[in-house]
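Here is the promised in-class demo. Please do not try to memorize the tokens; focus on the logic of going from shape to residues.
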């Protein structure tokens, strides 16, 4: 017996001295990945590679109470033995000899060796290898490293391993936040993980008895009066592990390989769990009510604009719903934005001085080459202010403004803002402002965050560890343009249910009713929502103003986000403007309203619409001057350009026109001194190619801009009379090949010319 013990001691010593350093964890072992919200709470936990929940937790982040309870139960002398406790080993051997049970001999290090190497320790040989491995581990690792590894590998019932996952699933909190009683209750699980596993339904007597015994020992160790374990206290197993923000979790974990998982701590995100749940609840309630009209899926993104941090990320209405392809991430999916890009057209136009919010724009039938855009309602409102055109999402003014933007135009702006446009600008053409290119919710939210703050394009942030990068250091939008567009988008009182003036918002409906978008700004927060089907199926109910906007407002109202009044930047001013023309009022303007503009930039001048004229009371005609020989009266009339006047007529909005001018030499000279007509089509010095075999391609529209009061214009090609038209309507010229000098003459005798070349092609 003595010789055997001596031989055993010699082998153990040799092993201890010469054994190589082993890995502390089994080869190929993987851990669960965890997402934390901005407050450090685990909101998403994945399975490890072997379908177990195993969350790596550093020793410093484990409750000291749990460490103490574990050692109290498993290995009181952990810090003093070399991996094997001779006293416990001798006591266990004596128990075998005498047939009396006197406790196990396994130390924490030996248990780690069993878990690490997958040993069967029921035989003497297995026990011997376990002890050798324990000595080897102690030889190369500190007590803290060994204890940490054990607590991360110990079985805690079912497919839960390690104290990190056990704390989360059995107690609903992190390992560092465990109370003494929770620590005691968890510590008894590794001794018999199958029998003592917490039950979702009913009680576990074996678990309760073990908890009671350890609690008694805990109280004795602390010199406390034994009071028994609280009868109402039990571990509360989670029916479902945390699975919040599944789309974001899959996205953030996509670049993590299996071999790397053990080194990665939980990922701290920017997600605000309370806001995430509020948005999910709003979406769920909204879709439940609208399900009967085919609304079954939606997405949403909430961003804190100044920091670009994403506070809520909802990739679909239900991740596990196969009927809506719920695992598709709608935040990254590319869809047509409809009119949701229009605010950026107006922002560019504002900072380029093309307009101010009260500027009058044309909303009437027009063609841009072969492109004939229409409004959503297929109607035209006639002249309309820029702010109304944007808020009411009129297509014609938006396309016309896009055409006037200086380079790099809307296409270049979107590229600089980080929007992925795979094709050249010519491919999209003037359809771009109406949703002719696909964007993602992420890109749209990033642009609206730029509009809500500093005008600088910066990517959205999802994790605190992420490095912030910018597409450009210079702002794409000025503070003045951002401020004015936010005001232009502010909600109107007449919008039923959408009358919150603290929200600036815009909608977008894609062609064919496939996508309904709504993007809103409230203070420092931006929210973008989408309603549609991931398979692209259309639905006539997908009209953004009627389905996406109400959801956006419901989310904002439920969140109750802080708000502050939008402070105008130094570069804007508010002045009185003519309520009709949107220009600086003159004494003849009867109605005025306040309006904003950018001094030195906005296109603004004294109102030329309202003019005072002299009327001969005898003839009712307009005269140029008072000659003192007849009775005259002064009256104010509106003098609109002919094309604008035609738009008013098309829209059914009558205007009070001035009487005709009297026929006199003085009146003729006064008329001739005014603006001559300007030919706008065809363009001078261009060659027009017409199709020989296509009669529809053999005409050129003749258009001219004229001054107010002109009713008819006459067209000539050389000495050949082509015909007459009103200033608002084109004359279609069936041209032939050759070089032509076109003449246009208005009914006041003013004219202008244009040289154009025409060729016929096959």
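The designed amino acids, position by position:
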């Amino acid at each position: 017996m003595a010789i055997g013990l001596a031989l055993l001691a010699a082998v153990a010593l040799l092993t201890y001295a010469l054994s190589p350093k082993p890995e502390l964890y089994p080869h190929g072992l993987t851990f669960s990945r965890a997402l934390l919200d901005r407050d450090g709470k685990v909101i998403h936990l994945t399975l490890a590679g072997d379908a177990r929940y195993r969350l790596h937790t550093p020793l410093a982040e484990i409750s000291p109470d749990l460490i103490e309870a574990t050692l109290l139960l498993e290995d009181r002398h952990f810090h003093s033995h070399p991996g094997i406790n001779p006293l416990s080993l001798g006591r266990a051997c004596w128990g075998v000899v005498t047939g009396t049970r006197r406790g196990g001999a396994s130390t924490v290090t030996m248990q780690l060796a069993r878990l690490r190497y997958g040993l069967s320790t029921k035989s003497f040989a297995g026990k011997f290898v376990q002890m050798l491995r324990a000595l080897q581990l102690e030889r190369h690792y500190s007590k803290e490293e060994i204890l940490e590894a054990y607590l991360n590998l110990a079985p805690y019932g079912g497919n839960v391993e390690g104290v990190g996952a056990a704390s989360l699933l059995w107690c609903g909190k992190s390992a560092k936040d465990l109370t003494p009683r929770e620590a005691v209750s968890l510590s008894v699980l590794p001794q018999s993980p199958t029998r003592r596993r917490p039950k979702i339904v009913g009680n576990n007597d074996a678990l309760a008895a073990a908890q009671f015994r350890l609690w008694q020992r805990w109280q004795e160790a602390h010199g406390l009066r034994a009071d028994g374990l609280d009868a109402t206290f039990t571990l509360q197993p989670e029916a479902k592990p945390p699975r919040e923000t599944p789309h974001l979790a899959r996205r953030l974990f996509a670049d993590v390989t299996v071999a790397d998982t053990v080194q990665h701590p939980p990922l701290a995100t920017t997600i605000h769990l309370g806001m995430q749940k509020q948005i999910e609840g709003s979406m769920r309630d909204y879709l439940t009510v609208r399900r009967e009209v085919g609304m079954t899926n939606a997405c949403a993104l909430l961003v804190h604009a100044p920091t670009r941090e994403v506070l809520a990320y909802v990739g679909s209405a239900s991740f596990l719903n196969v009927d809506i392809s719920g695992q598709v991430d709608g935040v990254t999916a590319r869809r047509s934005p409809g009119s949701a890009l229009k605010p950026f057209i107006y922002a560019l136009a504002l900072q380029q001085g093309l307009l101010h919010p009260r500027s009058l724009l044309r909303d009437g039938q027009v063609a841009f080459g072969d492109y004939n855009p229409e409004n959503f309602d297929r109607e035209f409102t006639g002249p309309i202010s820029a702010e109304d055109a944007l808020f009411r999402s009129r297509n014609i003014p938006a396309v016309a403004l896009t055409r006037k933007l200086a380079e790099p135009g809307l296409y270049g702006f979107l590229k600089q803002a980080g929007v992925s446009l795979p094709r050249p600008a010519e491919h999209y053409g003037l359809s771009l402002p109406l949703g002719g290119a696909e964007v993602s919710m992420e890109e749209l939210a990033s642009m609206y965050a730029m509009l809500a703050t500093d005008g600088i394009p910066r990517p959205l942030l999802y994790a605190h560890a992420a490095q912030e990068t910018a597409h450009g250091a210079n702002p794409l939008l000025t503070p003045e343009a951002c401020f004015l567009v936010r005001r232009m988008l502010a909600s109107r009182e007449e919008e039923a249910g959408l009358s919150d003036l603290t929200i600036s918002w815009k909608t977008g409906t894609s062609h064919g009713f496939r996508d309904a978008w709504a993007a809103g700004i409230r203070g420092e927060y931006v929210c973008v929502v989408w309603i549609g089907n991931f398979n692209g199926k259309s639905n006539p109910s997908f009209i953004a103003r009627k389905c996406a906007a109400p959801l956006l407002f419901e989310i904002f109202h439920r969140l109750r986000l802080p708000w502050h009044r939008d402070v105008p930047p130094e570069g804007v001013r508010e002045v009185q403007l003519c309520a009709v023309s949107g220009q600086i009022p003159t004494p003849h303007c009867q109605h005025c309203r306040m309006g904003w503009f950018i001094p030195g930039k906005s296109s603004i001048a004294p109102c030329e619409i309202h003019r005072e004229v002299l009327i001969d009371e005898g003839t009712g005609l307009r005269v140029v001057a008072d000659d003192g020989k007849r009775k005259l009266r002064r009256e104010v009339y509106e003098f609109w350009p002919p094309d604008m006047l035609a738009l008013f007529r098309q829209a059914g909005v009558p205007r009070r026109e001035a009487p005709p001018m009297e026929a006199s030499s003085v009146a003729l000279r006064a008329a001739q001194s005014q603006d001559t007509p300007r030919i706008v089509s065809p363009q001078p010095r261009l060659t027009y190619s017409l199709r020989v075999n296509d009669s529809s391609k053999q005409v050129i529209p003749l258009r001219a801009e004229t001054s107010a009061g002109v009713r008819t214009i006459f067209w000539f090609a050389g000495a050949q009379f082509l015909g007459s038209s009103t200033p608002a309507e084109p004359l279609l010229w069936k041209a032939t090949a050759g070089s032509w000098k076109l003449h246009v003459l208005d009914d006041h005798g003013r004219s202008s010319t244009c040289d154009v070349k025409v060729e016929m092609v096959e």
